Please model this.
Amino acid sequence: MDVPHTVTTALDDQPVAGKRCLEAGAGVGNTTGGLLANGAARVYAVTNDRDHARTTRRRVDGEGGDGGDGGDENGDGANDSDDSDENSGDHGDRLAVLEADLRAIPLPDGSVDLITAHGLCNVLDPASLSTVAEELSRVAAPGAQLVVDDYDPPPDGAAMRELFAVENAASELARGRPALTFYPAAFLRRFFAGHGWEFERERALLEPVPWTESHVSAHADEAADAAASAADGSGGAGDALAATARRLAAEIGSESAGRMYSLAFRRPG
Amino acid sequence: MQTRPLGDTGHDSTVMTFGAIALNWLEQEGANQMVEHVLDYGVNHFDVAPEYGDAELKLGPKLRQHREDIFLGCKTQERTYEGAWRKLDRSLNRLGVDNIDLYQVHGLEYDSELDEITGDDGALAAFREAKEEGLIDHIGLTSHGDPGLILDALDRIDDLESLMFPLNPVVAGKDDEEYDYEAVLARADEKNVGTLGIKAFAGGSWPSTDELPEADRPLANWYRPVTAPDEISDRFDFAAAQGLTSVVSAGDPKLVTMILEAAADYDGMDATAQRSLIERVRHDDSPVPEQLHH
Model:
């Protein structure tokens, strides 16, 4: 798989080779792929999303060649085991994909040397962020590194702000919490310092952030899904939000706006 | 327009090289105007080949008029000594000039071709004789093939002075060795070999001919190019910011003015903006569904 340059840039000053790594929020496996490519001894890719777990296994672990993997099901859909899955791919012996809640990470205290949270914090509301930070701090070994990559709040006037607002409104209605919270770099820097992490550096990963058509439609889908599940008993608000999300996605198309940053910290000890 | 040293040739090439295949799609009068237009922007490096239809013939008149202002690159797909001599003579005749500044092995694709051109009866033997006779000044090579093969060529051809190969944010976003043209750029820089970037403006391949017959393609390029001015400008900036000596303009004459403008305005590109462009095209192109993040 191709490791995104956002990931390679965030990792290029980090000691990865030979380290026990935790990828907090595996997404589609981009950072997991970067950690393995950089020689991690072991990567625990933790996600509470079964589709993400499956995609990570398939992309990082299961690939022999490249290309042509659009749309295939691989027949591995329903039969995946729920916990760590030791596939026989190139990285099988170094990768464990864990389907778990990051607020209760199934790893012992002090068991990892490097933690990555690439695009994680924005999907955590403040309460969850606090609990997750405690867990990350618990599993970190003395001297461990922490890399936090995320987005500054989109600038005033960015059309994506409106779509994110609709996505959040739908999520609040459906689940009682926002879908996305964009924490400024300065906020997370002080926040993790408050959890005992020594700040090491900040760098810009993307500026502007390219919200492509595929991102825009993925966020519109999220908003519409949440709105649909909120529709009953929302007095029509759910339907209105879904329609607004679709309209905004069509109007926006794509937009380049804002900044994605990378913060690095070290655990004393 | 900015210039950069083309390796050890002693020539400083403008950051844009005019891909003279664009002339093939114009009548002679339009071709003459195009050359004047390109020269007005200060472009001093032109690239042509006998395979580009009538481009050599149409370049001829204005090339002869402005010969001292143009560093002329030409090339041959012939791999043998005889064939290369024949094609060089033909190009000199069609262009109507006494000398070609940079003569290039065109489109190297297979290991066996590298063996052939470097052999006793290979094209490079003809290139070297022609150089001694003053018919060409410098030897180059072009390829859109395997970067490993280009690296081999760089190692095996001691008198190589320039390389032409693809470089754009689509290939920069791919990790496989088959797309590692950055390694070619790095090695060429180490050896002080000039570097010319092609496919900088490639957006993707054309739809299959079943879906879109060749005759219905709206542009003359081999690939589907980006066409909006800001996209052209981003693509030029990206290619030039990788450190290439010069970026070759796209083959369709409709795009040339936009590329000239981009080249004239070039003043670098931040690393964050380069990554933004790589991310943008990666997601446009990605087989992975449902990505909310970068």
